[in-house]
C-alpha cells in the first residue's frame, strides 16, 4: 500500500484504543510517526488503564484487567510488536506469557459466606429452570432481545446461585444491565464456565496495566516520533460532504484556556474516541469519601454529544450516560507497610499473592470483592510495601460492619468493612496503622453495559466515512464484548485497516462453541 509521505493522523484521546491505532498506523499503515498527533485531555496517557502513587501517599488503580488466552487475540497481536522497558529483545507478549507460566491463577477461596467459611464455588447452583432460561437467552437473536434487562430473562433463583455471583463480580454485571451484553459475554467466554470458580483461565500482566501495557506502548510510539499533546480537550469535529462520502475537515480544541484547531488536508485522517467509562473519576483517601460527579466535567462525553447531533449514525450517548446510579461503582487500593494482612489472607485462602484471583464476600451488602496481586504490582514498589485491590458493586447499601454506605465511607472505614468480613479484627489495629487506603468513585464505569438499541453505538467506520473513524468502548463491533482491552484494540485495528485499506487480516473473534471439546465441557458444567 502506497501511503503519502506527508499524510497526517490525529487521534482524539490517549487511551489504549488510540495508542493501539497509532501503532497500527505505523506498523501496518506505513505512516511516519512524526505525522501522528495524539490529543489527550489528561496529563497522562493510557485512559482507563491507570496505575500510580507511591508507598507513602498510597498506590491506586481504578480497576484491574483480567486477560484471557483464547479471546484476546488482537491484544496479543499488538503486544508482540512492543518491547518491554527493561529488555529491548523481549516483547511485552513474551514477558506476559512467561509471567503467567510462573504465576498461575487457581482460586481456592473464590466465594466467602457470611460466616466467613469458604464456599464450594464449584457447585454452580443451577436448577432446571435456570438452564432453560440460559439456553433461551443464547438462542435468541439480538434483534429479538432488544433493550431488555438481564433480570427480564431469569428468575430470582438464578441470581442467588454461586454461578451468578462469580460471573457478575468477575465481569461487573448488574441485574439491570443489557441482556444482549450478557449473551455476548456467555458466548465469548463460555470456555470459562468449567473454571469460573478457580479463574484458571485468567491471564495477567507482570505489573499493573499502566506499567506493563501503557508505558511500553507509549515509549515505542515516542521512539517512532509520535507526538502526544496533553491538556487538550477536543470540543468539536467539523465534517464536509454528503452521506455517500463524508470527511472530517477540522478538529477544534481547548488547551491552556485557549481555542485552537487542526485543519485536515485531503490525505489526513481523524480517529475519535467516544465517551469514557472512567470519565469524572473522583478519589478519596483514609479520611474522606470520594465525590460522585454527575455533571459531565470530562470532555469525552460532551464531545460525543456534540458529534451525535450532526448525524443519526454517530450514536446516542444518552443511552449510556443518562443514569449514573445504574453505571457507577467504587474501587479501593490498599498500600500496606506491614505484611500482616496479606499473610493472614494467604493462610485463610490457601493462595499465595498473585495466584488467588478474586475473593468475593457473597453475602456482603456491598458485594465486595478483593484480589491480592503478585508483588510488586507497581514499578519501583519497595519490598516492604504491599498492595491489594478491591471493589464493591452495591455502593448505596449500608455495610454490615460500619453501617455506612460504601459511597459515604472513608478509606479507613472501607478497610474496617473488609477486615470484618474476613474476621481479622485481632489484627485490625496493626493493619489500620500501617495501611493507606485510596478509593475511587467512577460514575460511568459500567455505562457500556447499559440497555441499548441497535443504533445507539456507531460503527467504527461509519458508512461513507472517507477519513475518520470512531474508537473506544462505545462503538459497535458485532459479536465482541465491551469492558475489555481487547474491544478497544480490535476497534483500533478495524479503524486503521478499514480507512487505509490495509491488506492484512484482522484476527477472528474466538467462538468457544465452534470448538467441540470446549463446547462439551461448558455444557457439561452448566448441566451437571
Explain the overall architecture.
Helices cover 30% and strands 18% of the residues. It is of the alpha/beta class and 528 residues long. The strands form five sheets. Strands 6-15-16-17-14-18-13 form a seven-stranded mixed beta sheet, with helices on both faces. Strands 8-2-1-12-19 form a five-stranded parallel beta sheet, covered by helices on one side. The longest helix is centred in the last third of the chain and has 16 residues, at 485-500. The model has no long low-confidence stretch (mean pLDDT 96).
Give descriptors for this structure.
single chain, 528 residues, alpha/beta, seven-stranded mixed β-sheet, five-stranded parallel β-sheet, 19 strands, globular
Please provide a brief summary of the model.
This protein has 528 residues and is of the alpha/beta class. It has 17 helices and 19 strands. The protein starts with 8 loop residues before the first strand and ends with a helix.
Summarize the SSE layout with pairings:
Layout: E1 9-12, H1 16-27, E2 36-40, E3 52-54, E4 58-60, E5 67-68, H2 73-79, H3 92-102, E6 111-112, H4 128-139, H5 142-145, H6 156-159, H7 162-171, H8 179-188, E7 202-203, H9 209-223, E8 227-230, E9 232-242, E10 245-255, E11 258-263, E12 269-273, E13 282-284, H10 299-308, H11 318-321, H12 324-327, E14 329-336, H13 340-349, E15 358-361, E16 368-371, E17 386-392, H14 411-422, H15 428-433, E18 435-442, E19 468-471, H16 485-500, H17 516-527
Parallel strand pairs: 1-2, 1-12, 2-8, 6-15, 12-19
Antiparallel strand pairs: 3-4, 5-7, 9-10, 10-11, 13-18, 14-17, 14-18, 15-16, 16-17
Helix pairs in contact: 1-9, 1-16, 2-16
